[in-house]
Structure formats: C-alpha cells, structure tokens
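User: Please write out a complete single-protein record containing the residue sequence and its fold in token form, without commentary.

AI:
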Amino acid sequence: MLARGLPNYPGPFRVAVQDVETDPVAVEGESGSPGELAPGLLFRIYYPTDDLPEPGHPEPVQASWLPEGRQNIYAKAMATFLKLPSVLGSLVIYPTLCSVKMPGILDQPLLHKLARETKAPDTQFGSKPESQAESEATANTTLNATLNSNATAKTETEATSQSVSAALARFPVCIFAHGLGGTRTMYSHYCGILASHGIVTFAIEFGDQSALVSYRTKTPASVVEARLLTPDSFSTPVAPPPSSSSSSSSSSLPPITALIPYFEYWKAKPPAGVDGDQFLLGKRKVQMSRKHEEIERLVQWIQDLHQGTKSAGTSEPASAPSLAPSATSSSSSSWMHWLSNGSSKKESPKRPGDSLDEIRKRFRQRLDLDNFILAGHSFGAATVIKHLQGKSSQKFRCAIIHDPWMLAVDNLPVDSTVPLLSIQSETFHWRSNITALQAIFEKANASSLFAVILQTAHQNLSDLPLMFPSLLRKVKMAGSADELQVMKDYEGLTITWLSQVLGAVRDVDLPVSTNYNGLEDPSHVQSGVLVGQKAIDCIYKYIEEQEQEQKSSNKSN
C-alpha cells in the first residue's frame, strides 16, 4: 500500500516549516499546589517564505510528514492507536509513510514582504489587482536586494535591524490544536493552507497524552511519569535507557529523554466503586486543563518571539546533562533499540534555523498580534472553547472550531466578543454534542458562522484522506466527497470568513471566493456546503437517521 503524495498548498506564498521545543516549566498542580513541573512544549511553525532561498542559505529541503529523524516513533504509535499489532508499525506503516513529504520546506526565512499603512481591497481567489501585484513585486525585489546585501554585514546595528523589521509586513498568527491521536503534522495541509495565505500557524503537539505519541529532548522522564493519567494505560515506555542517550549521535538530532504515550483509555481501570464513564470523563477534564495551560504557555512564547526576547522555559543548548534519562526495563531497551535503528543522517539534515536565536531573529516584530486566531479540531476544538471560557494574556481576534467534541467542555459562557467559525463534517455529531454546540452559537458574536461540508466524516480535515482516500472511505473515517474538493471547501470557508472578521488594517490580503462570499445567501454557496440554520438542520437530519437505524437494529436483536 502506497501513500498518495500531499497536494501543493493553494495560496500565493510558498510555505516553510520549523519545529521548536521548549524546556519544562513549573506550573500550578491540579491540586492547586505550586511548583509542579510540566513537560516543555513541542510545536511546528508553518509560515510563508520566499520562492527562492537567500544567497548562502541551503537549498530547500522538503519536510517529512513523519517528523524528521523520529519516523519510527510515530509509525509504531500509529499502530498502537489503531489497535494493531505493533510489528505492523515497522513492517507496514513505517515504509508506507517514511517517504511521504509535505510541500512545506525546512527552515527558510520568513517572507520578505513590505508593510503598508492602509489596507488594500481583498481579492478574488487566485487573483490580485495588476497594479498592486506589479508595485509589490518591484518593492519586494528592491527590499530583497537590500536585505541580501546587508546579510553579509556583520556589524549591522540594533537600530538598523529594528528599521528593517518595521519596513517588513507583519503576518496574522494562528495556534492550531489537534484532536485525539493527532500530531503537529496530522493537519499539515490545513495548516499549510493558512500559511500559504500569509498566516503564521503554530501547530502544537500536546504533552497531555492526547497526541498519537510525543517525545521530548529537554524534559526528564520523571516529569512525564509524574503526570501520567493512569499507570496502566499505555504501551510505550516513558524513559529511554541510558544506552539510547547517544542513539542519535549518528545524526544531528539531540537524544530523546522522554516519550509521552497516547492515553489508551480502553486499558484504564477505574477504582472500585467508580463508574467507568465518569472515571474517563475525569481524565478527559484533566487533559483539557493541561491543554489550556499549554496553549497559554505557547501564547506567551509567541508574544516573546515577536518582541525578540527569550521566553521563560526556553534555553540553549537543546539538551543538558541534568536531563539525562534514568534506567528502565529491558523491554524499554528493546523498544528504544528498534526506535533508534530507524534514524539516519538522511532523515535529519542540520538546518541553520535549528537555533532558537535564529528563530527569534526571523520572527522579531513580524507577527500581527492584533489578528491572533485560535483554531482546533475535535478535542482540540473543545480546547479552543475552553480557552475562550477562561482568562488569557492574549485577546483573540477570532476562533475556528472544527467538529468540537463537547463532552469535556464545561457549561460556562464563552467570550461573546470573539467571532466563531465552526465547520462540521456531516457525520460526526450526536444529539447531545450538537445541542451543546448550538447553545454556544445562540449567544455567539454576530459575525460567527456555523457551516457543514456535505458527504464528509470526522477525519476529512486531517491529511489521512489525502494520502489514503480509498482506505479511509472504506473504514468510514472519510466521507464520499472528493477529498481534494473537500479541502477546497475548507479553504474557501476559512479564508473568506477570515477576510471578513480580521482587522481592517493588516499587511496581508486574504482572497475572497464568490462561492463563499455572502454566505447566508444560498445562491452564493457551493452545492457541497450549507451554512446557518440549513447546516444545523442537516446535522439533525443525519442524527435522526442514525437514531432510527439504531432503534430498528435493537428491535431485530
């Protein structure tokens, strides 16, 4: 079985990606006690870049869909998540996915685009006013020449650096939160869509055991072990053995100090006398709280990145002797031996931007924090709602929630000043879930929009249907709609809506599709998309059909 290649991103800008990991930090414990250590953050930045590399910069290298140098970790974890024998991770999933590349390229400069004082009109998809395009091209050519000539000047002053930053465009920012079993690359096409339209997108890989798997090179295993949801609900050993600490010496990657396994809830055993559903719900709420805390830490990190300051919990170098892993069992040793054999120099080319100092220089004064977007899918979308129910150091311009899983969301008011875009797949919801979501929309900002893309399933937002369309339809993880058209609908709804709700003064033009402009007018909506009350009615119709099928099945039994 071969994976189909991922399509190119549709926006006007080329996309680059960069992974970042931060140090563990002290957070308030679940019991309210201060000083509990939490794992560092791990995320991938998707951002617009120039078509050609700067002089002296390495030739562009496409990013692997499975994170570079760590492919075997994710291949085996995917087998575990799908409840398949782990051997299939190495024999089937790894060879199938290890060669898949995303259109995003590793570690390139942020797009050299001039700032402007006033907002130009939003344009149609795939078009730009000729005079504007010509003037931007001329201006950017001049600017690039200036920047390239300055690149060799080692004595550039701080004042000059600030002047150049002020002359460059600032880009809207988005944090994207994955759902259960997600990773920082699982939604790479959607994140790439945003970046290709000029939105710098931070795809976080949560350390709360909701990711397919995750790892840290700066966090000791003891920190992860202290926060495991239950001691018997995972297959992956947390701590690599001492012998593996040099397993990546053959490459440029730092050694792994801790693995964060997926919470295998089907293995979790509630205490005697405790209802299983309530026990699991309690664990989900713990995860929700940790996601909320990680997003707030990432928000603060992004704010510091824009200011060019070193964030708390971020240090150099990438690993330190104090984070050396502890000894583990022989089963852990065999697992890590298998894991490390999958790494090679070819999988993990050393890039100049690996340095956090380089990343700070790249994004300093280049982020439009007045147009800050919070987005997520499923459990990640529920986390977005949770975040809008609490306090944050950042005021969000708007939020995007795809198929939110409402079970773990508290019945609290959501910030009504933040417009919401909620895009549903047709077959995800059940009655209590859609009722809870509908209650939020009844009190939502007037610019909010509720939409459904027809003939879709819950995983259509992820990359999986793009790579395995037939397989995903067969197991009902993707709908019958053409997966490429579905992604065009996600793009059209998202970008057109953002063009209407983001601040009027911004340096990036977002295209408007006539198929999605005036979304409440049925004549302007594509046949595969419903909005407003029609979308809600569509969801309830599907639910009623499923309930009727269940009743008929119960009678026959």
Residues 8 and 168 are 26 Å apart (CA to CA). The first strand starts at residue 14 and ends at 21.
